[in-house]
Design goal:
Order of helices and strands: HHHHHHHEEEEHEEEHEHHHEEEEEEEH
Helix content: 25-40%
Number of domains: 4
Mean pLDDT: 83
Radius of gyration: 36 Å
CATH topology of the largest domain: Nucleotidyltransferase, domain 5
Shape: elongated
């Protein structure tokens, strides 16, 4: 307070300018002006009243007035957050319903601001609101799990597949031997069976098994992955390269699964993939039932309320894994698959074709149309020929 008294003395008693007072007292001109403004607002003049420093401070810096708390009713933000995940529900619709119940409630702009503030306190992002039953995010964990061969003692590193639904973050976790195409597709099929239904969209990372040619906006998908998606009526939309927000849900699920599931298994020794998956699935149930830290419910409860009713039913038949390969019909109108030769119509000799290979059959396609189908043979170097595929002269000779 001593410096403030000196400022006011120089201004009012000595008639100094603000610039001169600021230089004399070592203060900014704005500070000198603020002291004078406060003194005038307090009704002070020179000489100052006989008050001590505490009294002068109370005159110049009175406490801020107490503002009465806003008595307008607040919505149930958690309920609104769940409603926003339902298809077709917008903030405008929820605000209108809120104002129907509370005509003196907040304006739409303030309503949205308060919702955003509430979501910020929950650690949620406003950038992406995932609709119920819309998307499932899939990836592999960065941590593998060693499995010991009980006969040889050899250690194999099992890979860990992780999936999470967007709205509920309900998770599926399992171990496979590889990240190859067969295991990748198998994990997807078991994931959908675990959920008991199909979402609309699968969002994978740019894993080579699923995406043959990564691209920021137009990645090329593996033909087997595309066929799997068609069987389950899914859309596959890979996460964009270098855009982590596209897969934030599964990255979070991977991190929590590594800490909640894999970390708890680090000191156990597993002698088979079945034994490892039994342990994972036991912990997975507890993981999904674990209560959220910052909001009511759990992954399991939100899944039952939101995602489960919105999932589409599974097809009647489970997908049969098929590998696709480019093949060329030789001059003898046969294509080679795993060193066995299968006939195609002779008109397709020397033409590149597509082969769909399953454990039981070989199908050959030309421009998307099936032109040949054979039972698969494991006889190396052998031939499987259909008479109708032969040209007329060869048919006559064979007779």
């Amino acid at each position: 307070m001593r410096k403030i008294r000196e400022v006011l003395r120089l201004l009012w008693d000595q008639g100094c300018s603000i610039r001169e007072v600021a230089r004399s007292c070592g203060l900014a001109r704005s500070t000198v002006g603020e002291y004078e403004r406060r003194a005038v607002a307090a009704g002070l003049g020179w000489p100052l009243p006989e008050v001590d420093d505490a009294g002068l401070e109370a005159l110049l810096f009175p406490p801020a007035p107490i503002i009465a708390p806003d008595q307008r009713p607040l919505p149930d933000w958690h309920a609104l957050d769940l409603e926003l995940r339902r298809k077709g529900v917008t903030r405008m619709l929820l605000w209108q319903e809120y104002r129907e119940q509370h005509p003196d409630g907040y304006s739409y702009t303030r309503f949205c601001e308060l919702l955003q503030e509430w979501r910020g306190l929950q650690g949620l992002s406003m950038r992406q609101i995932h609709l119920a039953g819309e998307k499932v995010f899939v990836d592999y964990a960065g941590t593998s799990v060693p499995v010991v061969d009980p006969e040889t003692g050899e250690i194999c590193e099992a890979q860990v597949f992780v999936a999470a639904l967007g709205a509920s973050q309900y998770a599926f976790v399992e171990a496979t031997w590889t990240q190859g195409l067969n295991d990748w597709i198998g994990s997807h099929a078991r994931m959908l069976a675990f959920f008991g239904g199909c979402p609309q969209v699968v969002v994978p990372d740019n894993l080579k098994a699923g995406v043959t040619s990564p691209h920021l906006y137009e990645p090329d998908l593996n033909p087997t992955y595309l066929e799997f998606a068609r069987h389950y009526a899914l859309a596959v939309i890979p996460a964009r390269a270098g855009k982590p927000q596209d897969k934030a849900v599964v990255e979070s699920a991977v991190q929590v699964a590594e800490r909640w599931i894999l970390a708890r298994l680090r000191n156990r020794t597993f002698f088979s993939l079945i034994e490892l998956n039994d342990a994972i699935h036991e912990l997975l149930g507890a993981f999904n039932a674990k209560a959220f830290q910052k909001r009511p419910g759990s992954r399991a409860s939100v899944f039952a309320e939101l995602d489960k009713p919105a999932l589409r039913p599974l097809p009647a038949e489970r997908y049969v894994f098929a590998r696709w390969a480019k093949v060329r019909a030789h001059v003898d109108y046969h294509v080679s698959v795993d060193k066995h030769h299968y006939s195609v119509p002779f008109q397709l000799a020397r033409i590149q074709l597509d082969a769909r290979i399953t454990a039981a059959s070989i199908e050959v396609f030309h421009q998307g149309k099936r032109v040949a189908s054979h039972a698969r043979s494991n006889r190396k170097g052998g031939h499987t020929t259909i008479r109708e595929h032969m040209p007329p002269a060869h048919q006559a000779q064979a007779a």
